[in-house]
């Protein structure tokens, strides 16, 4: 949380003062000759990576490590070296005045060479571009990227390797966890796999609990079958609510061929919960509430247990997660318990709305497929989520409904300078949808130019699109200082949504009959963001009538 606080306090500097050199020319792809990838990598890597190892050693300390590292060469290419290299993370520019004597490694970013590098260059998850005046006196290898020559010179061999799951591996104390599950964290709230992403320790603040202190242990996924049971949980104390909160879960896991996993498990819990994770992340919301008297989530008390079974698949191209879950819970309303914030003391928190209280016994089925590959300055891939939740008196539940949600996202890098991202989200239900499950639109995360959660119903359609262009392109205008926009991105976005209310007897596809494009509520806007597109300052306008701009600040992507 302290890292987030520091980020929030330094946003003006981030938006105005991050200098990065610009690349302005159109690149021609060089001719490459593909040879034996394994022998080439071994020869190159033997000359480069000691600095990476030293940094990792510094982070994890000097304790004794396991003697053996699991063999996962069928899934990853493992880089290991004992000799030095100059190491960069993220996009980097070697200026025309720079002379580097030694090998260069760039992780999760691209390198633009205007100066001279007397050594080999290895780029992991990015491109290598050598422009006019630039020279590499050695070999250039791009893993999951391309090599471009635009008037520059490369004296050594050029090699490109696509679709490689790159993993910089050293001897780790917990090798069973080394191969991560690539589930897109965009969909945690709907798959109810918050246990996968539990934070070890955090402070919280919201209007229903006040301050809270929490600790958690995530669920580990043992792809190699080294452990049969995975234990996880969390515990916390809410000071204004004067209550302990917690969760304890266990899952029996079965490894299937190294890239598949079947599990069966259960958990018990007493939690302050919300259905608004898809609108705003926990850390960002806590900071908004603490500093600015803005709490964008709504809360309710959820106590009970669940049983589930699921299947994970993690390949180099995509990951999937399928889960069937039985819920046995008691839901209760929570009042506002504090109206304090550090700043903006003349503002009050919204009322935390009451819910439909009672027993919720339900069956939930969810499926997520993700091919998203995030990088420091761009993101690429598809994400799809489909979920269904069924509750009925036949399950001894006080609630009677079936809810369906579909969420499709596409992150498309048009070039190394710009990205086009879209999201389509739809929801529908049958029966009497309880208040805590109703669809709501408006404000942060949905339609930023409209008041928060102004639209609601048991039918929902939402479309979000954004075009992100790196500020480097503006350096072509000689009257603009090169460093003014180099570390920023320019954002242009449009958001459009609709909610409706259908009869309880209507089927899942009914209730959309009266929908027309004229009923869409649309906002448009622009903004400025950090290089990775997460932190952003936006300006949004309604299109249905004349209105002043709504200004908003985010430290997480809206989708």
Task: Explain the overall architecture.
By secondary structure, this protein is mainly beta. It has two domains: 31-168, no CATH class; 179-465, Beta Barrel (Porin), CATH 2.40.160. The protein is 9% helix and 43% strand. The protein contains six helices and 35 strands. The strands form six sheets. It has a 17-stranded antiparallel beta sheet that branches. The chain has a five-stranded mixed beta sheet with strand order 1-13-10-7-4, with no helix packed on it. Strands 3-6-9-12-15 form a five-stranded parallel beta sheet, covered by helices on one side. It is globular, with a radius of gyration of 25 Å.
**What percent of the residues sit in helical stretches (DSSP H or I)?**
under 10%
**Assembly form of the protein:** single chain
Shape verdict: globular
Secondary-structure arrangement, i.e. CATH architecture of the largest domain: Beta Barrel
* Poorly predicted segments: 1-35, 50-83, 168-198
Number of strands: 35
Number of domains: 2
What name is given to the CATH topology of the largest domain?
Porin
Determine and state the CATH class of the largest domain.
Mainly Beta
Relative strand content: 35-45%
- For the termini, the CA-CA separation is 21 Å
Cα-atom Rg, whole angstroms? 25 Å
User: Tell me about the biggest sheet?
Assistant: 17 strands, antiparallel
Mean pLDDT score: 80
How many helical stretches?
Answer: 6
């Amino acid at each position: 949380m302290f890292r987030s606080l520091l980020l929030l306090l330094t946003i003006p500097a981030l938006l105005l003062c991050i200098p990065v050199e610009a690349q302005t020319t159109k690149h021609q792809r060089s001719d490459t000759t593909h040879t034996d990838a394994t022998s080439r990598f071994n020869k190159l890597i033997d000359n480069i990576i000691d600095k990476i190892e030293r940094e990792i050693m510094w982070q994890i300390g000097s304790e004794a490590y396991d003697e053996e590292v699991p063999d996962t060469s069928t899934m990853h290419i493992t880089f290991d070296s004992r000799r030095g290299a100059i190491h960069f993370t993220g996009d980097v520019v070697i200026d025309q005045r720079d002379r580097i004597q030694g090998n260069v490694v760039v992780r999760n970013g691209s390198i633009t060479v205007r100066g001279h590098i007397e050594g080999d260059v290895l780029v992991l998850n990015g491109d290598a571009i050598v422009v006019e005046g630039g020279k590499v006196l050695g070999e250039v290898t791009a893993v999951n990227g391309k090599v471009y020559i635009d008037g520059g010179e490369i004296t050594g061999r050029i090699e490109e390797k696509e679709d490689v799951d790159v993993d910089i591996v050293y001897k780790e104390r917990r090798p069973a966890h080394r191969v991560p599950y690539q589930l897109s964290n965009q969909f945690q709230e709907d798959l109810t796999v918050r246990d996968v992403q539990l934070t070890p320790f955090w402070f919280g603040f919201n209007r229903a609990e006040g301050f809270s202190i929490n600790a958690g242990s995530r669920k580990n996924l043992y792809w190699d079958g080294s452990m049969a049971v995975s234990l996880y949980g969390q515990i916390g104390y809410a000071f204004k609510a004067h209550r302990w909160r917690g969760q304890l879960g266990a899952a029996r896991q079965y490894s299937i061929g190294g890239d598949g996993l079947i599990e069966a498990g259960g958990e018990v819990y007493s939690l302050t919960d919300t259905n608004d994770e898809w609108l705003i992340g926990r850390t960002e919301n806590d900071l908004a509430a603490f500093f600015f008297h803005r709490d964008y989530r709504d809360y309710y008390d959820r106590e009970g247990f669940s049983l589930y079974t699921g299947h994970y698949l993690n390949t180099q191209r995509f990951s999937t997660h399928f889960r069937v879950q039985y819920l046995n819970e008691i839901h209760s309303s929570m009042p506002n318990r504090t109206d304090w914030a550090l700043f903006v003391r003349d503002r009050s928190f919204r009322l935390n709305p009451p819910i439909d209280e009672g027993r919720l016994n339900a069956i939930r089925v969810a499926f997520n497929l993700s091919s998203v590959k995030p990088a420091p300055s761009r993101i690429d891939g598809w994400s799809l989520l489909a979920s269904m939740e069924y509750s009925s008196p036949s399950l001894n539940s006080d609630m009677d409904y079936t809810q369906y949600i579909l969420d499709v996202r596409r992150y498309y890098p048009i070039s190394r300078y710009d990205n086009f991202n879209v999201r389509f989200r739809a929801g529908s239900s049958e029966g009497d949808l309880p208040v805590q499950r109703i669809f709501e639109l408006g404000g942060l995360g949905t339609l930023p130019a409209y008041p928060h959660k102004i639209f609601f119903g048991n039918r929902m359609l939402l479309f979000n699109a954004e075009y992100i262009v790196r500020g480097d392109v503006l350096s072509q205008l000689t009257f603009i200082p090169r460093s003014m926009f180099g570390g920023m991105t320019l954002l242009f976005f449009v958001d459009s949504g609709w909610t409706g209310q259908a009869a309880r007897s209507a089927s899942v596809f009914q209730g959309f009959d009266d929908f027309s494009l004229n009923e869409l509520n649309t906002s448009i806007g622009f903004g400025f963001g950090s290089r990775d597109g997460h932190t952003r300052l936006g300006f949004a306008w309604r299109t249905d009538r004349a209105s002043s701009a709504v200004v908003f600040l985010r430290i997480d992507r809206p989708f």
